[in-house]
Automatic annotation (TrEMBL):
It catalyses: Hydrolysis of terminal (1->4)-linked alpha-D-glucose residues successively from non-reducing ends of the chains with release of beta-D-glucose. One of its GO terms (biological process) is polysaccharide catabolic process. Residues 473-572 form the CBM20 domain. Residues 1-17 form the signal peptide. The active site is at D195, E198. InterPro entries: 6-hairpin_glycosidase_sf, 6hp_glycosidase-like_sf, Carb-bd-like_fold, CBM20, GH15-like, Glucoamylase, Glucoamylase_SBD, Ig-like_fold. Its EC number is 3.2.1.3. Belongs to the glycosyl hydrolase 15 family. This is Glucoamylase.
Length: 572
């Protein structure tokens, strides 16, 4: 099969796409049932999981994915909710499953976990046990994409319910969950997060992009159901998130840098997944939201795909303008650092989305940024706008369709005969590797197939947004806290405060905050601290430059959500 691809690519476009058609028709139903099999309690591979809980994979060792991730679950249910709402699957069994997902997530939101309680950061917890209890082992936390993706899935369902006369269910059942998630997003979008691969703690393009989308949709939903009293912070922050999103673009190398930290190239499937999961069919080729057909997203796609051409043995010998297997990022070593089914399918999906928009707008545009992408298909092509009546348009779109199908054909080539989709396939021989039956692999394949057959999903309001001229940062809500400490001192000795947050000078004895002795022997200070946050602190004495810390353990307070707080201590 590979030899055939290598030697005969130019000749086999038609044959190739026929075989992709065959794969879509056989693998589509397998992908759908593969998703359902991993959802508790009755999914055939999810026995023991609570109702509506998505198990990431039935694999329990090397790797152990017998957990439910908020990200994976929300992406899987977004795909199922899309199927229900557009009418691909309008069955009562799917409706019941969606309602069980809502019930499960409503419960999980309230489960206290190592990231906090529902009101002190717990919504950033990435994964839970499949019986809906907290996972307490060490992990890359928080991961702040989960609440945004969950809100987007539920808002998609909510919009359909409203259009079908069931607004009360939205207001009473969905809205409280959505509101908690979006308050979390609005409060925390400007805090560091682990990326979607759970490896790097910094800021991450995928996370920022899905947060932006969720806030915009939430504001629209709030307006539709008269819940506008809570959205002023969302409305104030959404433009700041969009502004920050622009900063990931690397103009020199013409790709999106996936993470602000991590010390890698930043070339990462993160950015392709962000483009397809924030696709808005009514937003044209808008580059500020990195729409799939935007010049920036296409340039980024080329850089991303090309980064895998020479590093995987299975890609060797493939022409430089033909599809190859792609993985998470070129530096990846996890489980051997192989191609992923869902990453390869995501490339196809971005291209199918782009073809859908060019077709509906009746033209495509080539800018200096996207020129190298288009030159892969026609080396002499120039910048400009090409109407669908031109031969340039026909040549390019038909080559891009073949290119897109090529990525599906790669996944097809390395899909075992039973159609099961693991997480990865070997970079050296294409054999399936790592977790079997990865729920997200199935969902990623299904959404690529839907994009291929032009299924139209709902717009989320990406059209016509303006990026503010200056980006504002946001440190989150604060509360006013007074610290009183009873401490007798000698003349010339003073009491200071320092602790675990910037407002308390991050444990620095040299810049600690001086307390007032106006009510001696009670020393006092009033400071603004992050709301809803567990903060550790200690008082220190300084006398003639000599620092004396209070004895252990560290003191701690959990600040309230709003208002003021007074802490009364005695020097230890
Ligand atoms: C799971 O199966 C049991 C037994 O057939 C049934 O009572 C229950 O309603 C099913 N649950 C779901 C969520 O479909
Ligand atoms: C839930 O699952 C965890 C992990 O498997 C297990 O340790 C715990 O005992 C379970 N709790 C309940 C209430 O079943
Ligand atoms: C509204 O949707 C919920 C959730 O599926 C359902 O239980 C309820 O019966 C619906 N109500 C109406 C009036 O359709
Ligand atoms: C917060 O936002 C500012 C302004 O966009 C940005 O420069 C900074 O990197 C952001 N920090 C984080 C952690 O998101
Ligand atoms: C489009 O593709 C999806 C996924 O394969 C499938 O479920 C759906 O029925 C297809 N729709 C049409 C109109 O072919
Ligand atoms: C108090 O906090 C500091 C800074 O995080 C830490 O180094 C120290 O170990 C803590 N002390 C105790 C007793 O936990
Ligand atoms: C500290 O003392 C003040 C005044 O006596 C009181 O209002 C406040 O509730 C006390 N704080 C706590 C946490 O007990």
């Amino acid at each position: 099969m590979r030899r055939f691809l290598v030697c005969g690519l130019a000749l086999v476009g038609a044959v190739f796409s026929q075989s992709v058609d065959t794969y879509v028709s056989t693998e589509g139903p397998i992908a759908k049932s593969g998703m359902l099999a991993n959802i508790g309690p009755n999914g055939s591979k999810a026995a023991g999981a609570s109702p509506g809980v998505v198990v990431a994979s039935p694999s329990t060792t090397n790797p152990d994915y017998w957990y439910t991730w908020i990200r994976d679950s929300s992406l899987v249910f977004k795909a199922l909710i899309d199927q229900y709402t557009v009418g691909i699957d309008r069955t009562s069994s799917l409706r019941n499953l969606i309602d069980e997902f809502v019930t499960a997530e409503t419960y999980i939101q309230q489960v206290s976990n190592p990231s906090g309680t529902v009101s002190t950061g717990g919504l950033g917890e990435p994964k839970f046990n499949v019986n809906e209890t907290a996972f307490t082992g060490s992990w890359g936390r928080p991961q702040r994409d989960g609440p945004a993706l969950r809100a987007t899935a539920m808002i998609t369902y909510a919009n359909w319910l409203i259009a079908n006369g069931n607004t009360s269910w939205v207001t009473n059942t969905l809205w409280p969950v959505i509101e908690l998630d979006l308050n979390y997003v609005a409060d925390n979008w400007n805090q560091s997060t682990f990326d979607l691969w759970e490896e790097i703690s910094s800021s991450s393009f995928f996370t920022t992009a899905v947060q932006h989308r969720a806030l915009r949709q939430g504001i629209t939903l709030a307006n539709a159901i008269g819940q506008t009293s809570v959205t002023s912070l969302w409305s104030a922050q959404a433009p700041n998130v969009l502004c920050f999103l622009q900063s990931y673009w690397n103009p020199t190398s013409a790709y999106v840098t996936a993470n602000t930290g991590g010390g890698r190239s930043g070339i990462d499937s993160n950015t392709v997944l962000a483009s397809i999961h924030t696709f808005d069919p009514l937003a044209g080729c808008d580059a500020t939201t990195f729409q799939p057909c935007s010049d920036k997203a296409l340039s980024n796609l080329k850089v991303y795909v090309d980064s895998f051409r020479s590093i995987y043995t299975i890609n060797s010998g493939i022409a430089s303008s033909a599809a190859v297997a792609t993985g998470r990022y070129p530096e990846d070593v996890y489980q051997g650092g192989n191609p992923w089914y869902l990453c390869t399918a995501a490339v196809a999906e971005q291209l199918y989305d782009a073809l859908q928009v060019w077709s509906s707008q009746g033209s495509l545009s080539i800018t200096s940024i996207s020129l190298p992408f288009f030159q892969q298909f026609s080396s002499g092509v120039a910048t400009g706008t090409y109407a669908s009546s031109t031969s340039t348009y026909s040549t390019l779109t038909s080559a891009i369709k073949t290119f897109a199908d090529g990525f599906i054909a790669i996944d097809q080539m390395y899909t075992p005969t039973n159609g099961g989709l693991a997480e990865q396939f070997s970079r050296s021989n294409g054999a399936p590797l790592s977790a079997v039956d990865l729920t997200w692999s199935y969902a990623g394949m299904l959404t690529a197939f839907e994009a291929r057959n032009n299924t139209q999903f709902a717009s989320w309001g990406a059209s016509g947004l303006t990026v503010p001229s200056a980006c504002q940062s946001y440190s989150g809500p604060t509360v006013t806290v007074t610290f009183n400490v009873y401490a007798t001192t000698v003349y010339g000795e003073n009491i200071y405060l320092t602790g675990s947050v910037a407002a308390l000078e991050n444990w620095s004895p040299t810049s600690a905050l001086l307390l007032s002795s106006a009510d001696y022997p009670t020393w006092s200070i009033t400071v603004d601290l992050p709301a809803n946050t567990n903060i550790e602190y200690k008082y220190i004495r300084i006398y003639n430059g000599a620092v004396t810390w209070e004895s252990d353990p560290n003191m701690s307070i959990t600040t309230p959500a709003s208002g003021t707080y007074t802490e009364n201590d005695t020097w230890r």
